[in-house]
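As a next step, the fold was encoded as tokens, giving this record:
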Amino acid sequence: TVLPARGGILKKKGQHEAELKPLAQSHATKHKIPVKYLEFISEAIIQVLQRKHSGDFGADAQAAMKKALELFRNDIAAKYKELGFQG
């Protein structure tokens, strides 16, 4: 469920407030996932994509994915702050 949720948010191209808010709330209050773990998960996603799709996931695609995942983490971190979660 993690990858489909992230994929849906990424497809919104910045217009993801409605999807991000409940996701951030559950990650902060129910799962208590710190932002640093989201960074680790993001790196793991990129590594898996490199291994599974090396021919289609070159340097440009990797850079774009890293940037998109970084923006996602920044948005989650901002929501965490609004919720008072110090993760």
